[in-house]
Design a protein that fits this description.
Length: 388
Amino acid sequence: MNDVDIAVGLGIAQAAIATLATMLTIGIAFLAKPSRATLFWSFAFALAMVSTFGVAAGAAAEAETVRRIFLGILMGAPALLWSGFRAFWGVRALPWVGPLVGAASAALLVAAGDTIWFSPAYRVVFFATSVCAGLFFIDWVRVPARRDRVALPFAIMSLAFFAAGAANGIAGFVFPATTGDDLALLRVISSIGMLAYTACALVAVIGISTRDTAFARSSEAPAGWQRFQLTAVERLARAQQSGEPWSVVYLQLDDAAEIRQMGGAAVLGELSRRFLDTVRSVFPAESDVGSPAAGTAVVLLPRNDAAVRDHLRTVLERISNLDVDVSLPIRPSASAGWAPVSVVGYDLDALLYMGREAATLASENGGDRWERVGVTVTDRLLNPLQRS
């Protein structure tokens, strides 16, 4: 088997896994929980899919310029994956890095032609894209709250990717530049590594995106609530080490008892399901959402106060616009209690208790509003006569 056959075979394998990753990311991650993070991840895998098909086609047709263009474009995919994780973590996503790396890489590889500069150009391009993988690893390991176990294989593979890129870059200074024949082995190794890198990225993306979707939870089952509690305790423990701003938001449907009485349990159950779907669609992808009972949702999210306020306003507005059974004279609304760790601390039980009390206070004040844990909620707890 010659080098062309090997390149074509590896290209087909890369195209196959990139296609699978694109289909799963769009069909399961983005459509189930649309967000900037899942959008960037979808773009990354779609870019990888198109590029690998282009590289394989160029290799099969022996059209070197086409192969180099798509190879350069492919180099932007790791940067888009990194941008997706930054969006997931709630920091600046820097989505322009991926297109910039891809366009610059393609231009550099084509400009190098068959001259002695191709080998240095290839090494520079490979190192540049490995830096994006290394930046993901640094961001992932730097903050304990980000160290999701489902992303551990991808983090390890990202570190290995950066190490390979750095070693390849150093080798370019040690060995004299050639027309690229010395890169044959490196191309095979990098192609095999890209297969493993893509597979680990897919596991991380799907695992994170489906944690709170219908593929991974049964919201009304006690087991689902127990899983939420276990996950929340673990994430809060990690957050306490880094001191990041986290909050628990406790939401409950107003007039749930009346809705059950007038429409029955089936109507309340259907409304509760759409209520939970609305909550999940509003809050960011990195949030954990659980439901201890019908008509109730609890959200654990890592956001600052300004962001939490925006999410609360949006979710209450969308809940009030939910369609209900025509036989019900009651329009849906919800009350929310907001318990930030800066006030309550990182203990989950305390956050749930204070959040529930704040939601009850919001409901008693007319509903369709939110209440932040503070002096008013504390006075309510210390003075039982104030409770209805």
